[in-house]
Design goal:
By secondary structure, this protein is mainly beta. The longest helix is centred in the N-terminal third of the chain and has 20 residues. The protein is elongated, with a radius of gyration of 21 Å. The relative contact order is 0.21.
């Protein structure tokens, strides 16, 4: 009888775990976007976020300086809310051509996030030389 009770408990626990893991809200959702500007390229990977969620629990920005031109590169996250765009701080790469830097972060609970994107730019000091924007939805529309 003890074996049957133990087996029943294990079977019930397994069924509950499978049931919870199979629900859409628990599925691992991954979105990506990447773009290139003259002298720089970058990408965004989000995990655990989907359209209209209120936070992005995990995100990674990757920035590469692609030209030996003496300029530095920058990358930042942009998010689209129903009535506005949120611009996050720039991350910089001053290490020169061929370098790649990765920045891991998250967006804490806030307004409904309808899209997320990456902006990549090449700069001379504070002067923007080139910039690109790519949203995970596929749009390349510059939010500014």
């Amino acid at each position: 009888m003890k074996k049957a009770a133990r087996f029943g408990l294990v079977a019930l626990s397994s069924a509950l775990l499978v049931g919870f893991a199979a629900t859409p809200s628990q599925a691992l959702v991954v979105h990506t976007a990447s773009c290139s500007a003259t002298g720089s390229s970058g990408s965004l990977i989000t995990t655990g976020w989907d359209y209209n969620d209120r936070s992005i629990p995990n995100l990674s920005l990757t920035l590469k300086d692609t030209l030996a031109d003496g300029h530095h590169t920058q990358i930042r996250l942009v998010v689209q809310y129903p009535d506005s765009v949120g611009y996050f701080p720039w991350h910089y790469d001053y290490d020169g051509a061929g370098t790649t830097l990765q920045f891991n972060s998250y967006v804490s609970s806030g307004g409904t996030i309808t899209d997320a994107g990456v902006q990549v730019g090449t700069y001379e000091g504070s002067t923007q030389k080139s910039v690109c924007t790519k949203w995970v939805s596929g749009s390349t529309q510059d939010p500014s």
